[in-house]
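## retry 2 of 3
previous attempt timed out at serialization; input unchanged, resubmitting
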Amino acid sequence: MDVFVEIIPGTHARQLRVVEGNRETRFHALWLRERSPDAETLDPRTGQRLIEAAALPQDLALTGAACDGETVDLTFSDGHRARFPWRDLHPAPPAGAIHEHWDASLAIMPSADFSQALERDDALSEMLEGLERYGFVKVSGVPLTLDGMMPLVERLGPLRRTNWGGIADVKSIADAYDLTMTQRGLEPHTDNPYRDPIPGYIWLHCLSNADSGGDSTLTDGFMAAKRLRRDDPDAFDCLTRTSTRFRYVDDDAHLESEGPLIELDPRGKVIRVRYNNRTERIPPLPPEQLERYYAARRAFFALITAPELTLTPKLAPGEMLIMDNYRLLHGRTAFRLSQGVRHLRQGYVDRDTTASRRLTLRRQAGISLHSLEESA
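## retry succeeded, writing output
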């Protein structure tokens, strides 16, 4: 396909237009100059910038532009010449997130086999892509040992340590210091919103479960936010604009953080939900503002607890849930024990190491975002 480039008139030669078929893209001269793919501008090995971009002339302009279909040749007013491979200016869409919002009608839960994900890169990649798409994945065949999850954790990166250590026990005990250690049901929540940064992924490994109750509850927070935005836009707006606080204090820790229950990126896309009734401490805002906030929070709570949005899997010994703590709300039904102990082990893994492993495996396999979107 023919490619056409020109310096756009009336822009003081600071903009370049590139046309391929019916697609047109505009580039700023400084944006092009600071990305010039030569050894003077970018380190050939690392791709990191060698020049100080902020020191380039603010009035830098283009003095020449040509394209032979394979490369775009540019000259700049500072005398620099650059040759861009055409595809560098016409890249595939960025390797962004592909989120499939779901409700209780989800027929097949994303799943993985522990041994296969541990031994095979393609199985690990499939597990991580499922985790990214749905916000959770159920892993089977996890060794029934206290640190059974660790070999797979180490395939991704370090375990996130907290004031409770590395992997913590979740089981009913006398004189419980946290409600997770009782037999009561737990409302849908995200973990540790009082931390900064908030842990990215929860790994919950079952060693033994209750004979009655103790089912996990899973709700897609992004789906709940989507429905709130559709059905009650005023409530949605309130929860994205009101910053609430979360607090956890015991003899050895004092943790506080804040943020909205529904967090948006600059483009208005939902990127995180926070909800933790046990630790939320809304500031003493003006009563009129609190009135609006309480109504909005109630509307959101009605969605995240709605049966039509909730999955209720029960973990068997040797099964594990990996959950996106920025998206998924999890809880459990109350349980009774006639014998034995309901014993789960829980750890956290950060988002950056998880995303890095997923994207590296995707690149090594030559998987494009386009192909993933087609399979969605």
